[in-house]
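Sorry, explain these tokens?

___
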Amino acid sequence: MEKILVIGAGGQIGVELTLALREKYGADNVIASDIREPHALLANSGPFVELDVMNSHAVSLLVQKEKITQIYLLAAILSATGEKNPLWAWDINMKSLMNILDICVEHKVAKLYWPSSIAVFGNTTPKDNTEQKTVIEPVTVYGISKYAGELWCQYYFNKYGLDVRSLRYPGLISWKSAPGGGTTDYAIDIYIEALKKQSYECFLGEDTYLPMMYMDDAIRATIELMEAPKESIKNRMSYNLSGMSFSPKEIAASIQKHIPGFTISYAPDFRQQIADSWPNSIDDSEAAKDWGWKTEFDLDKMTEAMLENLKTVNRM
């Protein structure tokens, strides 16, 4: 019987991942935790613990008490937010990971999931179909912390045999939870504003291509990775993961198929420089080869799903 702890369950990924894990493993076997009160979607769906991942003693006691077999560590300070206070972001992103790595070894936790990001790539990385192994020189504190974290994950696997697994997420798009301070968050806000105002001012330029993924695909990829046989996991840093790539101009055109009067304008800000340092598209062939990853959503299928769900939830 698996007993799973999700740390950072109130975030953009955490909410949907926790719900999916509860559906699969049973609500009582998936403990959601966060430093904040439970998200509305999680409040009555299973156990919740208010937990600060920086308090390693409290986390250790919980893992021991509940006999946790898997941990999903999702707590992090994202790219745009991290640039406003780099040392704070570094401290939280790195110390939280080191705390959990040590706790997993101490209590013999069977599996650890920790997400990385396309933010590990930088200006010197090849832009198109970026390969798994390539030049990596991140330009944000978020990207620096994620790349350092990948190396620590590999170290703990090699030194202690800890079964830690990771994905380099592209920009993630969801209707269930609010954006968390990332550079790709325009691709969530644009759908909300399209329904509210039929217009949107984008903080990136119209031809800024970025790798993106609908949250349903991201959740499925995460669970498929964690359920893959141990011998199938050849990469102990973090797997490239790809869904689709598009620009603000293209997502606007996709929305206009459903809302013909929708208009978009552009006012690039400091996030443009971050976006320009990231790839246009990602090669995730190693994930496909090792554990059978395959995306399901393209841009138009995602647009249809986002607009329909947002209308239902917000009665727009």
In short: The first strand starts at residue 4 and ends at 7. The chain has a mean pLDDT of 96. The two ends are 42 Å apart (CA to CA). Residues 79 and 194 are 25 Å apart (CA to CA).
